[in-house]
Amino acid sequence: MDHRLHTESDLDAALAYLVKADPRFGQALTLAGRPPLRRRPDGFAGLAAIVASQQLSTASAKAIWQRLEAALDPFDHVAMLRARTPKLVRAGLSAPKIRTLKAIAKAIDCGELDLPSLVHQPADNAHRALTAVHGIGPWTADIYLLFCLGHADTWPAGDLALQEATRLLLALDARPNAKEMGPLAEAWRPWRGAAACMLWSYYRVAKQREGAPLQGEQSGKPDKPVRRRNGR
Question: Cα angle vertex 123, ends 122, 127, to 5°?
């Protein structure tokens, strides 16, 4: 069964499972409170928004996205293919992000990437389909699957904030890397996506109590960690 996080009830069921599977989630829930159910639009616009907002503060990402939507009306993969690079630069996109968005639009246009079909595919299959497109790394794919499609067992193992939160929750001596994160979360299947949401909330509260600045997540490109100024 492919579990989903579409409703508040889904999230409640997932959190109840996690607390039962690992009582440390109960402690995290008490400290940080219930995480919100975060959903984003799916399709090209949803994926493009994730790419465009990487490595940016919330305010900067919002401003760029508003300019991008105004520049490409209607906002779809066809408009992205037709858009000239200077126009996209004026909207605030960097050259790597323009290349990624163009590659996604081209993959959709030629049928190599069928975003609507990902809704019905197992998370692992959908992840492979996304990362097959140039510029879409594991982190971008994981965030799209979790927040846009509601795949409940998505586990963004390369996310630096999630790695640190896992270290805090499990009282590890060092922050686990992406490879180590997989085995650590095995007991949280099939709700690892809900575990990630809980851990991000726990991370924010725990780090604020320590007086430390928020860390960032991994970029949309494989194996290249970056810092972001806004938390999850």
Answer: 120
How high is the pLDDT of residue 1?
Answer: 62
Mean pLDDT of all residues in the chain? Answer: 89
DSSP 76-89: SHHHHHH--HHHHH
pLDDT at 66: 96
> Percent of the chain scored above 90 by pLDDT?
82
Angstrom distance (rounded) from CA 159 to CA 142: 10
Q: How far apart are CA 131 and CA 183, in angstroms?
A: 22
pLDDT at 219 over 90: no
Residue 64, by phi and psi: left (phi above 0), alpha (psi -120 to 50) or beta?
alpha
Amino acid at 59: A
Return all residues near 20 (Cβ < 8 A) that are at least 6 apart.
none
The identity of residue 138, as a single letter, is P
What are the C-alpha distances in Å from 217 to residues 84, 162, 203?
Answer: 30, 8, 12
The residues, any chain, with a CB within 8 Å of residue 120's CB and separated by 6 or more, are none
Alpha carbons 213 and 229: distance in angstroms, whole number = 9
C-alpha torsion sign, points 142, 146, 72, 81: positive
- In sequence order, which residues have a C-beta less than 8 Å from that of residue 17 and are 6 or more positions away? 191, 194
pTM of the full structure: 0.86
CA–CA dist 175, 183 (Å, integer): 14
Is residue 214's pLDDT more than 60?
A: no
d(CA 219, CA 12): 29
